[in-house]
Amino acid sequence: MKILFTLIFTLLSFSTYAAPKSELWPYWNTSNESNTVQVNHQAWQALLDTYLVVDGENTLFKYSSVTLEDKQKLNAYLTNLSKLNPREFSRAEQYAYWVNLYNAITVQLILDAYPVKSITKLGGFFSFGPWGDEVISINGKALTLNDIEHRILRPIWNDPRTHYAVNCASLGCPNLQPNAFTVDNTEQQLESAAFTFINSDKGVLVDNGKIQLSSIYEWFAEDFGNRQQLTEHLAHYRPDLVTLSGKFHYEYNWDLNDKK
């Protein structure tokens, strides 16, 4: 009976996690390009400066070291973001807003549950992670992390580099960037994040003719295109991959990006 329950739970978990498709939530697909106001992300930047550290090919977060005061500052930052109407900002400002919001909420979720070995342990009993849980309300709309990534960021901007920008607090994920996203640095951060990930073993590992890619390229294949388009994308940041051939294998490490 225990074995059957474990099997059912595992199947439900992986079914629940199946990568959502990019499906636009039309309400958010509007902007005010004449608005030059920039959202203040200094509180988020201060947390990154204090608790994010480089360890090999990973950037890790010192969750266990976060003080009560800084937890309160993170909560206040997210409260301030929730009071803004992103539809009133320019597209470029919106992108930075949504990416920072997503990443800050993810850190908040880990801190609220810490100590925890993996983000996949969060969420409801039959959930594989917290991505389907309502985590914030913007303009009176309750949002999940899935909403932010798959119903706003992906369909509005149609930029596969978004997968290198949003962070899921896992070692297999593209690194949490050391700088808060802003209008001025978004392009540079996206390019840097893509380059770093694709040139890391967790992004692309070629060993004795075997090709191991991050599961991101399998889960979100629709964003990266067919095999040739994916290869061109990878080779743009890592030229030695231009002749990539053979069967692709996919791996992902869900262990927490934790620096003890």
Automatic annotation (TrEMBL):
GO terms for biological process: cell redox homeostasis. InterPro entries: DUF547, Grx-like_ET. The keyword Signal applies. Pfam families: DUF547. Residues 1-18 form the signal peptide. GO terms for molecular function: electron transfer activity. This is DUF547 domain-containing protein. The keyword Signal applies. Keywords: Signal. Residues 87-198 form the DUF547 domain.
